[in-house]
Amino acid sequence: MVEFRGVSKVYQTGNPAVDNLNLSIESGKITVFVGPSGCGKTTSLRMINRMVEPTSGTITVDGRDVSTIPAHELRRSMGYVMQQAGLLPHRTVIENISTVLRLNKVPRAQARERSLELLKTVGLPESMANRYPNQLSGGQQQRVGVARALAADPPVLLMDEPFSAVDPVVRAELQQELLRLQRDLAKTIIFVTHDIDEATVLGDRVAVFAVGGRVAQYAPPEEILRAPVDDFVANFVGRDRGFRRLSFSTGESVPIHPANAVLLNGASPTDDVEAAAASRDSSASSWALAVDADNHPLGWLAPGSTSSPLIPGGSLFHAGDPLRNALDAALSSPSGLGVAVDADGQVTGLVKASEVLAAIESVREGRS
Ligand code: ADP
Ligand code: MG
């Protein structure tokens, strides 16, 4: 457990960057510090491994006051990942990952083997081992940064906006990778971000920082979305917080209806659509879902449509997804019917927005 007790930091320039911080951070969980820029998140994070010294107050890790632990020892027991992966430009990927292991006097061959393993752990192919950082994309560099931080298998991982500089698609991938890793590793992760979406996706608990280095709310993400403690937090989490909160409710109660599916066989989807559409009753009054021979969804045929092209479908509702995905599948589908699929991507049926809303209502009633 990491604990802040009455911790403040005032830089020479005057106002407190962190003001009387009191926070207990659970072991084996992801705790997120979120808030606008300049509100003391980085300063708070860096006081944990003594990159910054507090002006007053105490930080303990598993009961030990960090100010009594030599800084180099402390830093070796904590992985650190920052925004620009901070890789050494003239060292290869594998050398970058091995750095801490070599400092810890792990023999070269063993360090290399462990580093190759870590490369795989963070989802990179071995073929990247001998590249230099500038030969990797931003997302790949961040993965190497995570691998390096994990090298010495530290119990605590400090991450300061590690995914902020990559594009949204890669960022979402990296977030899912981190959650997957954490399921195996169960590290104590303290993760800084200014992005409330990232905070609610990753955090077991979220500390919302406000201007002046004060924590406005510290709670599980679902609670922060449901019951922000004040206007600052409500504004910070944004206007669509109700929608985002649906991420925390299971979608399993949403009824799934049989799909009016049209099978498209063969190699040429265009020809098949023509054929399938032509074989439809041209007075058909409903939308039809086109599927391939493996029952994967391909797109939609509009009511009465006898010609291609297919109309692209909306997002898919995967088995096990939360209510948010069920609602989005229905709202984003051209037919107004969301496509439900199983783990293999095969169509299991359709969901209706009205019934998703009914499911949302019953969740609300259950809670009140
Ligand atoms: P955040 O990570 O939330 O953006 P920081 O912890 O980096 O916030 O900064 C909090 C406040 O402390 C800001 O006003 C910033 O300008 C100030 N600050 C941060 N580092 C220093 C420093 N080394 N010297 C002086 N002021 C600093
Ligand atoms: Mg910062």
Gist of the model:
Helices cover 36% and strands 23% of the residues. The chain has helices at 41-48, 71-76, 93-103, 108-121, 138-150, 168-185, 196-202, 221-226, 231-237, 241-245, 269-279, 323-332, 353-367, and strands at 2-10, 16-25, 30-34, 56-61, 64-65, 78-81, 156-160, 188-193, 205-210, 214-219, 261-263, 288-291, 297-301, 316-318, 337-341, 347-352.
Give the SSE layout.
Blueprint: E1 2-10, E2 16-25, E3 30-34, H1 41-48, E4 56-61, E5 64-65, H2 71-76, E6 78-81, H3 93-103, H4 108-121, H5 138-150, E7 156-160, H6 168-185, E8 188-193, H7 196-202, E9 205-210, E10 214-219, H8 221-226, H9 231-237, H10 241-245, E11 261-263, H11 269-279, E12 288-291, E13 297-301, E14 316-318, H12 323-332, E15 337-341, E16 347-352, H13 353-367
Parallel strand pairs: 3-8, 3-9, 6-7, 7-8, 11-12, 14-15
Antiparallel strand pairs: 1-2, 1-4, 4-5, 9-10, 12-13, 15-16
